[in-house]
């Protein structure tokens, strides 16, 4: 099945490339021209002197009047690998973009970004020598040829018309990569590529226009994690580029020296040291041997690999990954400060050769501060994104594993090295080996101020000396990566699993599955048969729906939780609860008000017939004609091609609001990423997703009797009646499965008006006047003002198309005097993090409305 799915995806990708290439005459023509020119000038292997003199871009060619090089430099590549890479990028990137935006716009974008990007890069390169003479000289005499410049440029141009998700990811990912290349590699070509991308970013709205979803940067927490992970990953790749690029000249290329060993053999170093063990030649030779070779280079790169692992954890929202990344950046910043101190303050003494492979330069010594400092600022600013904890005991087991690996490798290293002690230049004792062992686990670039006491002199001792640390870091990276794959539902994951088990075996309300969402804490009844999910906000213990458990113990669970909350100094408040619970709290003297209206469809004999279901039948008929069908999926196991589309649709919806996604009783992508939540998607014959709905199970006495609608998103330019089609299809399909009902959930701050002529008793009127009328009016005003942004009342009106039963949802509380605190807690529960800018946009929207 997996092979078949992979085959379908491969065929789809091949078809996409083929269809893109077939409608891309400019891209394919440029590709042919590039290869023809390369063959005609005999520069397919390496550009000839003739090509560099007459067609490559650079400051010197421009000074000699060869202005055409700003364009022709994009028609050659610097090597055969460069030609092959350009071919792949043109077919996979450029051709589909041309097919999307049109050949005329594509040609204009390619020429503009190539020419203007080159001119900007040359101007910047000419100014660089004012702050870095060495780098400026390399840029001044450098030459650049590569089609990747205009490919990067048109990609950034095309991003202006992309949907929110891919516009954001493409821009952050590409710019992070190009900035990293410019800072570490630093060649003129890197500067031209970066400049072409920036020019494309600025010209995009003029060439292809803006996306229909606008340029708002608001995104979900999930997407924020992805963007932060991209930035951290790009920063981790920088030292790798420095280590593997022998010709790196950028301002951060100083880090390249940390990985470069001296070109001396152990015999030559011994000869130096025999003459004078304290001479600079001896110490440099020892340092070079420590840094040279495959093992030391890999060990020095392991922190970068570890950061890449942490980037995956950040993408998953893991709190441990955030803490570890912060610690790593603080360490890197401290090392940069130590480097500065050694070179310019003299912490270690004049005779030290710490970081001393190149002559000290104040500018280049301070530059490495910038990367860890910038990443640290990003991590601290986005700390609220990373709230996912692993199951209890996960990191205790991780630390035990690390300690065990350290101990085990220590025994192997000390025992093996002592047995092979004759294979060192100086025969070590057990004490020396024990003292040296910690250094074997630390990347050698961080130990340059320490002189090695002994060095390996044969294959066996070299294996122990250089590869023990590599093995340790590999185990640590794999172990940490595995912790990010451990299931996690919330801060108290074990409690969440216990709550899920009780919910499956017992009974709850239609909203009870929301009690398993991240952010909730749990109170369990003394007999262990029920629980209440709650969160404490501003001193208010705010629940999510009814208590879960046997319905005949509802009163005991309410009073038990209330006593628990008040005992902790919290104000208990049951939110979005059923009328059954309202009766219980009324019986113990609590007050309550209606806060929402649940809509329920009974499935027994459901048939969308008659005039009142006209809109629903129209949606079903139009879907059939358009080739759109409904399909059940599980988001965690769905193909990437489907989940990416769903993510893009959701990000567009959030960006269109200009405000963050609401939480609490409103689920998002994190909540549908649950194997027990079913998703129904509307897809066409080309596997394009037009809409999605998610359905949460409703349990009664351990059996699923119904399903509750939660997540609803529709593609902005897709099949318009997708929601009507999906809800109707879900109802019909679930009826066939034997479900009793589906709940279309409640719309917060929205309710059906009292029917005309409805009467209430004098006692009810007095109660409303004394306790509820003020809060009722506040909620009514809040619902009206938020309507232009979140559309809760429009949502309730939309659900009326299905002729549902309306079931009031209530909020009950013990102390009416605590209503201001309760209202504040509810607002913060739905919108826990609203920035100043988002708050101002919200106020402007409400004023306009």
UniProtKB/TrEMBL annotation:
<feature type="transmembrane region" description="Helical">
    <location>
        <begin position="398"/>
        <end position="420"/>
    </location>
</feature>
<dbReference type="InterPro" id="IPR051211">
    <property type="entry name" value="PG_lysyltransferase"/>
</dbReference>
<feature type="transmembrane region" description="Helical">
    <location>
        <begin position="21"/>
        <end position="40"/>
    </location>
</feature>
<dbReference type="GO" id="GO:0005886">
    <property type="term" value="C:plasma membrane"/>
</dbReference>
<feature type="domain" description="Phosphatidylglycerol lysyltransferase C-terminal">
    <location>
        <begin position="502"/>
        <end position="810"/>
    </location>
</feature>
<feature type="transmembrane region" description="Helical">
    <location>
        <begin position="75"/>
        <end position="94"/>
    </location>
</feature>
<dbReference type="Pfam" id="PF09924">
    <property type="entry name" value="LPG_synthase_C"/>
</dbReference>
<feature type="transmembrane region" description="Helical">
    <location>
        <begin position="322"/>
        <end position="346"/>
    </location>
</feature>
<keyword id="KW-1003">Cell membrane</keyword>
<feature type="transmembrane region" description="Helical">
    <location>
        <begin position="366"/>
        <end position="386"/>
    </location>
</feature>
<dbReference type="GO" id="GO:0016755">
    <property type="term" value="F:aminoacyltransferase activity"/>
</dbReference>
<feature type="transmembrane region" description="Helical">
    <location>
        <begin position="287"/>
        <end position="310"/>
    </location>
</feature>
<feature type="transmembrane region" description="Helical">
    <location>
        <begin position="464"/>
        <end position="484"/>
    </location>
</feature>
<feature type="transmembrane region" description="Helical">
    <location>
        <begin position="170"/>
        <end position="188"/>
    </location>
</feature>
<feature type="transmembrane region" description="Helical">
    <location>
        <begin position="224"/>
        <end position="244"/>
    </location>
</feature>
<keyword id="KW-1133">Transmembrane helix</keyword>
<keyword id="KW-0812">Transmembrane</keyword>
<feature type="transmembrane region" description="Helical">
    <location>
        <begin position="106"/>
        <end position="125"/>
    </location>
</feature>
<dbReference type="GO" id="GO:0055091">
    <property type="term" value="P:phospholipid homeostasis"/>
</dbReference>
<feature type="transmembrane region" description="Helical">
    <location>
        <begin position="194"/>
        <end position="212"/>
    </location>
</feature>
<keyword id="KW-0472">Membrane</keyword>
<dbReference type="InterPro" id="IPR024320">
    <property type="entry name" value="LPG_synthase_C"/>
</dbReference>
<protein>
    <submittedName>
        <fullName>DUF2156 domain-containing protein</fullName>
    </submittedName>
</protein>
<dbReference type="InterPro" id="IPR035952">
    <property type="entry name" value="Rhomboid-like_sf"/>
</dbReference>
<feature type="transmembrane region" description="Helical">
    <location>
        <begin position="137"/>
        <end position="158"/>
    </location>
</feature>
């Amino acid at each position: 099945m997996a092979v078949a799915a992979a085959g379908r995806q491969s065929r789809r990708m091949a078809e996409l490339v083929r269809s893109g290439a077939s409608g891309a005459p400019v891209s394919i023509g440029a590709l042919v021209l590039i290869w023809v020119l390369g063959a005609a000038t005999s520069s397919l292997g390496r550009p000839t002197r003739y090509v560099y003199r007459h067609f490559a871009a650079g400051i010197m060619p421009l000074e000699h009047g060869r202005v055409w090089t700003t364009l022709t430099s994009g028609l050659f590549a610097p090597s055969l690998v460069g030609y092959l890479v350009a071919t792949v990028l043109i077919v996979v990137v450029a051709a589909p973009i041309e097919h999307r935006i049109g050949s005329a716009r594509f040609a204009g974008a390619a020429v503009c970004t190539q020419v203007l990007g080159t001119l900007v890069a040359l101007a910047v390169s000419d100014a660089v020598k004012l702050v870095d003479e060495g780098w400026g000289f390399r840029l001044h005499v450098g030459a650049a040829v590569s089609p990747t410049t205009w490919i990067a440029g048109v990609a950034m141009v095309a991003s202006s018309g992309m949907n929110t998700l891919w516009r954001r990811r493409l821009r952050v990912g590409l710019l992070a990569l190009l900035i990293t290349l410019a800072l570490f590699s630093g060649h003129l070509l890197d500067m031209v590529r970066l400049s072409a991308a920036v020019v494309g970013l600025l010209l995009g709205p003029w060439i292809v226009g803006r996306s229909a979803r606008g340029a708002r940067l608001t995104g979900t927490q999930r997407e924020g994690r992805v963007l932060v992970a991209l930035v951290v990953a790009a920063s981790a790749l920088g030292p790798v580029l420095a280590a593997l690029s022998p010709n790196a000249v950028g301002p951060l290329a100083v880090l390249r020296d940390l990985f470069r060993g001296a070109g001396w053999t152990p015999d030559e170093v011994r000869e130096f040291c025999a003459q004078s063990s304290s001479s600079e030649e001896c110490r440099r030779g020892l340092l070079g041997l420590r840094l040279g070779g495959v093992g030391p280079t890999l060990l020095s790169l392991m922190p970068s690999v570890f950061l890449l692992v942490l980037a995956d954890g950040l993408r998953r929202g893991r709190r441990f990954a955030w803490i570890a990344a912060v610690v790593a950046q603080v360490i890197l910043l401290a090392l940069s400060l130590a480097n500065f101190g050694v070179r310019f303050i003299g912490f270690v003494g004049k005779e030290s050769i710490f970081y001393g492979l190149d002559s000290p330069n104040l500018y280049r010594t301070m530059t490495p501060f910038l990367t860890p400092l910038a990443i640290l600022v990003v991590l601290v600013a986005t700390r609220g994104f990373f709230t996912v904890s692993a199951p209890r005991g996960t990191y205790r087991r991780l630390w035990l594993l690390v300690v065990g690996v350290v101990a085990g490798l220590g025994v192997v290293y000390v025992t093996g090295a002592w047995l092979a002690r004759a294979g060192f230049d100086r025969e070590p004792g057990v004490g020396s080996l024990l003292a040296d062992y910690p250094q074997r686990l630390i990347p050698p670039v961080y130990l340059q101020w320490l002189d090695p006491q002994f060095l390996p002199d044969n294959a066996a001792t070299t294996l122990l000396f250089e590869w023990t640390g590599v093995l340790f870091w590999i185990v640590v990276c794999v172990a940490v990566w595995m912790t990010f794959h451990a299931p996690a539902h919330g801060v108290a994951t074990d409690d969440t699993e216990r709550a899920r088990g009780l919910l499956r075996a017992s009974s709850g309300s239609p909203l009870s599955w929301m009690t398993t969402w991240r952010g909730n804490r749990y109170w369990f009844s003394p007999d262990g048969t029920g629980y209440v999910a709650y969160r404490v906000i501003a001193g208010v213990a705010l629940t999510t729906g009814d208590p879960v458990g046997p319905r005949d113990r509802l009163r005991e669970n309410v009073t038990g939780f209330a006593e628990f909350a008040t005992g902790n100094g919290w104000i208990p408040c049951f939110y979005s609860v059923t009328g059954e619970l309202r009766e219980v709290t009324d019986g113990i003297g609590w007050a309550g008000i209606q806060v929402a209206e649940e809509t329920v469809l009974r499935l027994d004999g459901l048939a969308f017939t008659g005039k009142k279901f006209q809109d629903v039948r129209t949606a079903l008929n139009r879907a059939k004609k358009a080739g759109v069908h409904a399909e059940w999926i599980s988001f965690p196991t769905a193909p990437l091609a489907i989940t990416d589309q769903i993510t893009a649709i959701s990000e567009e919806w959030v960006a269109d609001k200009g405000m963050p996604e609401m939480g609490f009783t409103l689920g998002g992508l994190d909540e549908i990423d649950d194997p027990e939540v079913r998703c129904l998607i509307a897809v066409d014959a080309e596997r394009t997703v037009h809409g999605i709905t998610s359905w949460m199970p409703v349990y009664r006495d351990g059996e699923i009797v119904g399903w509750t609608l939660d997540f609803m998103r529709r593609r902005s330019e897709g099949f318009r009646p997708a929601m009507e089609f999906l809800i109707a299809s879900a109802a019909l399909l679930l009826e066939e499965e034997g479900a009793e009902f589906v709940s279309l959930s409640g719309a917060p701050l929205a309710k059906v008006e009292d029917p005309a002529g409805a009467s209430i008793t004098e006692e009810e009127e007095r109660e409303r006047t004394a306790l509820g009328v003020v809060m009722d009016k506040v909620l009514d005003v809040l619902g009206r003002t938020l309507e232009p942004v979140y559309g809760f009342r429009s949502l309730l009106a939309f659900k009326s198309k299905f002729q549902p039963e309306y079931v009031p949802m209530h909020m009950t509380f013990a102390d009416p005097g605590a209503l201001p605190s309760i209202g504040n807690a509810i607002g913060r529960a739905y919108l826990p993090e609203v920035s100043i800018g988002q708050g101002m946009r919200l106020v402007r929207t409400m004023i306009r409305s």
